[in-house]
């Protein structure tokens, strides 16, 4: 049994994700919140494909 909960949504975590230090989050995040945080802090990371100059 996993009795730990996501610190953001308080939901159960199937997988625990370690937040980055600069997020100032204590505890673990669920997958959803982790991706959300990634997107908040690094917007466009997955969209911006910089292939200019190739
Ligand atoms: Zn969550």
Features:
single chain, 54 residues, mainly alpha, 0% strand, binds zinc ion
Ligand kinds: zinc ion
SSE string, helices as H and strands as E: H
Query: How many DSSP helices?
Result: 1
Which band does the percent of strand residues land in? under 5%
Could you walk me through the main structural features you see in this protein, from its secondary elements to its overall organization?
By secondary structure, the chain is an all-alpha fold. It has one domain. The protein contains 1 helix and no strands. The longest helix has 11 residues, at 31-41. The model has no long low-confidence stretch (mean pLDDT 84). Zinc ion binds at residues 6, 8-9, 11, 29-30, 32-33.
Question: Secondary structure elements and their pairing?
Answer:
Blueprint: H1 31-41
Bound molecules: zinc ion.
Zinc ion binds at residues 6, 8-9, 11, 29-30, 32-33.
In short:
With 54 residues, this protein is mainly α.
